[in-house]
Amino acid sequence: MPHFKGYTVALCIALISASYAHAHTEAPEQAAQAMHTLNTLSTLKQAWASAKYQQQGIAQVAALEHLLSEFDALHDQAPERVDVALWYGITLSTYATTQSGVSALKAVTHAKRLLEFVVEQEPMIEDGLAYSILGSLYYRVPKWPIGFKNEAKAAAFLKEATAKFPDSIDANFLYAEYLKNEKDYTRAEHYYLQGLKSNKRPGFEVADEGRRQEISHALAELRQHSRLTREPVKG
Hints:
Radius of gyration: 24 Å
Strand content: under 5%
Distance between the termini: 114 Å
Mean pLDDT: 88
Number of helices: 9
Structural class: mainly alpha
Order of helices and strands: HHHHHHHHH
Number of strands: 0
């Protein structure tokens, strides 16, 4: 019996040592994988900005489709990563704007699932961008049973984003777009202008410049509309 007890103690020590060694080996591997995911995501975000703001037509569609295949693989590797889900959803929503019919609806429905995951897990990531994108999807898609249009959710999500992040260029622009769609032109102009006041973000130079151009174009259209509606009919 004493010999058996000694064997048991030795076995326990060996198992503990093996477990400790495995944990210390696993930790650097996990850290390396996390860093790889972060670096890959950073590259994909830059590629998204280039595809959205610097490419058009067939080239833009091809670039976005390539990005989606990259995001699909990255998301499979790290399904728990909220940042990956966020940008995968954003890229899908961008891709949907280049599509029509079933293809567009399929993309936005997938984007919705990803963005809802982000809102549940870490809603404030990237200045609450998931709120803004989801809000935009909710009013742009068709009504049930084809789509998931929900005007109340759209307004709530977009207002939430601007309330929590009043200096966000994306939150202000996307809320202004919603207000313009609702024909609330005075408030739309206010939020467009708020967007232009936003500080430039390091690493987002292409996206920020592209967004500012969108805002400037939208403001010009808005002011042209206002001028035309105020002018008396001649003749």
